């Protein structure tokens, strides 16, 4: 039961992760906190929407 990988989600997560690492590296603490919260929110929303789509497909 391997699911297909959503390429758009992976690209967004990778870009935000790179931006977060760069912000930490350059010492931009406020920007790093904003990016981290956005990254966590995006991942949470993506997981929630994927779970609801799976539930609808099973019915």
Task: List its salient traits.
mainly alpha, elongated, 2 helices, 83% helix, 59 residues
The helix count comes to 2
- First-last Cα distance: 17 Å
Mean pLDDT: 88
Based on the structure, what is the oligomeric state of the protein chains? single chain
Helix content range: over 70%
E-strand count = 0
User: What general outline do the C-alpha atoms trace?
Assistant: elongated
| Tally of discrete structural domains | 1
Largest sheet: none
| Uncertain stretches | none
Please give the radius of gyration in angstroms.
Answer: 15 Å
- Give the class from helix and strand content and strand pairing: mainly alpha
Proportion of β residues?
under 5%
The H/E string reads HH
Description:
The protein has one domain (7-52). It is 83% helix and 0% strand. The chain is built from two helices and no strands. Helix 1 packs antiparallel against helix 2 (29-58). The radius of gyration is 15 Å and the shape is elongated. The two termini are 17 Å apart. Keywords: Membrane, Transmembrane, Transmembrane helix.
Would you summarize the structure shown here?
By secondary structure, this protein is mainly α. Helix content is 83%, strand content 0%.
